[in-house]
Amino acid sequence: MEWKGRRGSDNIEDRRRTSGGRTASIGGAGAVIVFLIAMFLGVDPSKLLGPGGLEIGTGSGEPVELTEADVQAGEFVSVTLADTEEIWTKVFAEQLNARYTPAVLVLFKDHTPSACGGASEATGPFYCPADKKVYLDTAFFVTLQRKLGAHGDFAAAYVVAHEIGHHVQDELGILGKSMTLRQQVGQEESNAISVMVELQADCLSGIWAREAAQTLGTVERGDLEEAVNAARQIGDDTLQANAGQRPMPHTFTHGTSEQRSEWFLLGLNSGLIADCDTFSATDL
Ligand SMILES: [Zn+2]
What we know:
With 284 residues, the protein is α/β, with parallel strands linked by helices. It has one domain (12-275). Helix content is 51%, strand content 6%. The chain has ten helices and six strands; from the N terminus they run βαααβββββααααααα. It has helices spanning 29-41, 45-49, 68-96, 139-146, 153-171, 174-183, 187-216, 223-233, 236-242, 257-270, and strands at 12-14, 104-107, 111-112, 119-120, 126-128, 133-136. The strands form two sheets. A four-stranded mixed beta sheet has the order 1-2-6-5, covered by helices on one side. It has a two-stranded antiparallel ribbon with strand order 3-4. Residues 162, 166, 198, 201 line the site of zinc ion (ZN).
């Protein structure tokens, strides 16, 4: 992907210099600020602070040094995010006659709080609908490459595009509905709904890849193969097999390697949001 020297996004929240391992309780001035925030929100401040205090990342005051690789990864994510904003603004206008409101992407190291709970290496990158932010530790890109066998910069860009795909679902009202539905059914059915949500996000990232190639012209030879390979490598069946387990379809939450790559390719070839309707598909 062509990204060096290109425009980055304004919607990056870089917490990498302040997040980093430790958590601290808020006392003194911090408690006053929390109380003021609580008054604004009209909530009980003890609910914000909780018994262990509010997690605020590092309280140590030690600055976290960013390596050259960190800086590069941050710029890469920023350019990719800017591309998703340009593309979804265009696609929303053309296909839905609607305005796209971009998400914020939080870069962090080790762990950081989110409105959906703590973000860490264990959670992997995710989208939190409660604060409309994507949480990403760029160390995941190293995991992607070395442990999951998803090589190339476009594999990393696909991860960003997939998470933004969840934000697109949120903007379309699909994410909220699916979450309500999942709370009303049993575990297996809830997993099946999760698969539909995830495959749709893969399809939406296919639309992003198509526009990046056709409209922005930033896709290089081999890029699309990198994204398709990434989608295959993080299929539930492949992940379970690589972990030495027999794949158990009723536990799948993201879809098989074949499904993930197929839905990405469907979005790539069609370019239409309407064609990414995994909820109406008779066969995923
Ligand atoms: Zn997802």
